[in-house]
Amino acid sequence: MLMDVLPEQMKDWTELLSDQAYLWQSAKQEQSGILEKGHLSKVQGHLVLLGKQLSKSALLQNLQLLDDAGIAVEVAGIKQVAERDVVSLRLSDWSLELKQQLQTLATDWDLACVPTLPDATQPGLVLMDMDSTAIQIECIDEIARLAGVGEEVAAVTRAAMEGALPFSDSLRLRVKALAGADAAIIEQVIANMPLMPGLITLVEGLKAMGWKVALASGGFTPFTGHLRETLGLDADFANTLDIQDGRFTGEVLGDIVDAKAKARILLELAERFNIAPSQTVAVGDGANDLQMLAAAGLGVALHAKPLVQEQAPVCLNQLSLEGVLALVHAS
């Protein structure tokens, strides 16, 4: 089938292409090439394009780059998930260099170029960071603002998320600044805690699939506990603020949930729920999440800090958490 006969918007392709896979064939005499029914004999990687409205030209840019690199491509699926366009391609080869080249094309869409994808038909686990990932704020910054030390604490938060300061040290510094503040501030923050767009869609979609969903946060237990109860999550992990006589003491109780702890929690939850490591997905935005993203079968950075953008396996910048659900369904 000539690409020329396909509509510009990829959401309109499904009726024409049905559910079959198509091999991309470069046709030098035809500017847009052709699609022929078939399957790759050997799959070494996956490319997933995601967007609010993907166009044929977006797909062609990626196909042409892959063709120039000598990589055979199978167009394995075109669908809509959570009202987002998703195109899944199987690749005959994969490399980090290829991923970086494809990333330069992603101007108004997101992409994942990875060696493997989780299988949506099998049990799985999604473990999320909370602050600036599951919710739109940094809870400690909001507590500090209400306590009158907002600028001081926010500066330390930024340094920690960008990797300029060890997380555990930064957390203790920030909590120390809260000493003496009224702990009732916690309830004020919970009452005005904005969820990240797509969070409910993601959680409901994963639960419908029978997947597990949990939080691992460098924040605090009242907030992760509230989300676990209201959203029906399977587990939550966070830090415990020391409160005496209704006021913060400026101390954190117990071990801190830092980068190493988040990665460990991911693997422990997978074992607890009898889920293969390849079926785990981690989502975060800061330097404190990088080890967790690396440990997961699929690590996804959401609207992440520059350091995380450079190192994360997958970055979502156009879509929000509904994009994670789309990635889970991409296989």
From TrEMBL:
Top-level taxonomic group: Bacteria
Top EC class, one word: hydrolase
Keyword Metal-binding: yes
Molecular function GO labels: hydrolase activity
Pathway: Amino-acid biosynthesis; L-serine biosynthesis; L-serine from 3-phospho-D-glycerate: step 3/3
Residue ranges of the TM segments: none
The protein, known as: Phosphoserine phosphatase
Organism: Oceanisphaera pacifica
